[in-house]
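Bit of a strange request maybe. I'm writing a small parser for structure token strings and I need a real example to test against, not something I typed by hand. Could someone generate the tokens for this chain?
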Amino acid sequence: MSTQTLIYIFVAASFALYIGIAIWTRAGSTKEFYVAGGGVHPVVNGMATAADWMSAASFISMAGLIAFMGYDGSVYLMGWTGGYVVLALLLAPYLRKFGQFTVPDFIGTRYYSRVARTVAVICLIFISFTYIAGQMRGVGIVFSRFLDVSVELGVVIGMGIVFFYAVLGGMKGITYTQVAQYCVLIFAYMVPAFFISMLITGNPIPQLGLGSTVNDGSGMYVLEKLDQSLQMMGFGPYTDGKSMIDVFCITAALMIGTAGLPHVIVRFFTVPKASDARKSAGWALVFIALLYTTAPAVAAFARLNFNESINDTPYAEAPAWFTNWEANNLIAFTDKNGDGVMQVAAGDPFTGAPDYSGERGPAGNRLVTNAPVADNANEVYLDRDIMVLANPEIANLPGWVIALVAAGGLAAALSTAAGLLLVISTAVSHDLLKSTFRPGISEKGELLAARLAATAAIVVAGVLGIYPPGWVAQVVAFAFGLAAASLFPAIFMGIFTKSMNKEGAIAGMVAGLGFTFLYIAYFKLWNPDANVAENWLLGISPEGIGVIGMLINFGVAIAVMKFTASPPAEIGRLVESIRVPRGAATAQVH
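Reply from user aminoacidic:
Good idea to test on real output. This should exercise your parser:
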């Protein structure tokens, strides 16, 4: 059976499973649509949370970034996993004790203000749409290669699948679909990692293989050989890194942003009681660690295989995987010196992504119309988001492994996209419509509004997926910075301080979100040529600026609080009740 046939079978079977679960678990009430009825077991919720969390950025893009960033890529591993510890200890059980449906629910009630709720909704929508752009881009990349369609059409197909089970099943359907998606994605990630680790080092456990010697008789360790290979090609050593302050800030922004991401927080509203929220976070961390401890090895092995497969290889002898991905405009060769041989070196081979002319050069390579960059020797363009997806092909693994990776990549992207879309639709239908503008709306009307909002959100998400402002993991990193700068301080102060008032919280959220968004937009959208370390504030990159935004949020909130009225007495009692450990199973705030 051909690899392409296997891909169709694996992908179709996984989609049939997801859609079947959505039909079986269709939401019949707003509580089931918003929080799955509030009765999900902690282990099940931990697995669903892991799938919600391990998005296209984790499955598709993270190892690709680490493969090219080297040591610098460790910020994603440390920040994203450490964030779950913060979430489990500081937020999850208290928000579950509060007992409502959404993050804006908590902020609106805790800060006794419709304006605070509305600002929280705006922050949530900013964060969620920034995040979902990366997911839909990931869906498009997987479809474009494995189902032989364009990235744009792949995004549209992904929109249709997510629409079906997110709009139909709500949180109830998404929860059990995500359990299935976790099983698919973790199996799809680990199987090729075992194969490739065994091929390169003789050790089938990738976490151990990363510290082993290479199976080529040289006696060199994996990272030692990778350093040597990269330096011979003109790159810096794989184990070199960013400045300490930037590493610290990116890690902290990712960590704090994790604890402020609305689609992650809402998962802890689905368990029966507050203690289960903490257990869910613990189980989620276990399930996430399976992939995250494997990613550095996958990244290193992928880079070694890529270097050896491509560098100094005549284009006429290019491996099949290269021409497969070239046909999808995700890899390209431009022959600068006319020798017909592909040279990989530091720098960009031409300006931006490849813009194909439809013609072929003397070496047989597809020509690009954007001008080559003349000041470096690099002749190969690679979209970093394909590294994990192409890895099995580069290593010549069996066709069923390639098909499994295709299904896993789609599972990762679709699971997170569905969670984000639900958060957006809930914010519109419950927080804006039900709680702010139309309090008298019926439950049936609210459920219809939630589904219509989800439909609109899918359309917007699709547009962002077709025109994303960066690589998948980078786009997602911006969402974490926005979450760290806006929602996290308001939630944290809402739980641990009785004195914080609505004026302070609102001012802090606006200041933190505004500063962080403008900083990111300036360097990434408006003036990307200025995006170099010497122009950054205190040497902090856009990926790490969320930490400064968070500090601005805290500072502005505290300053405004000092000059405005104290919160009502009942708010103090609310804060105390949230933090009481006993009776958490039945406590409910209305």
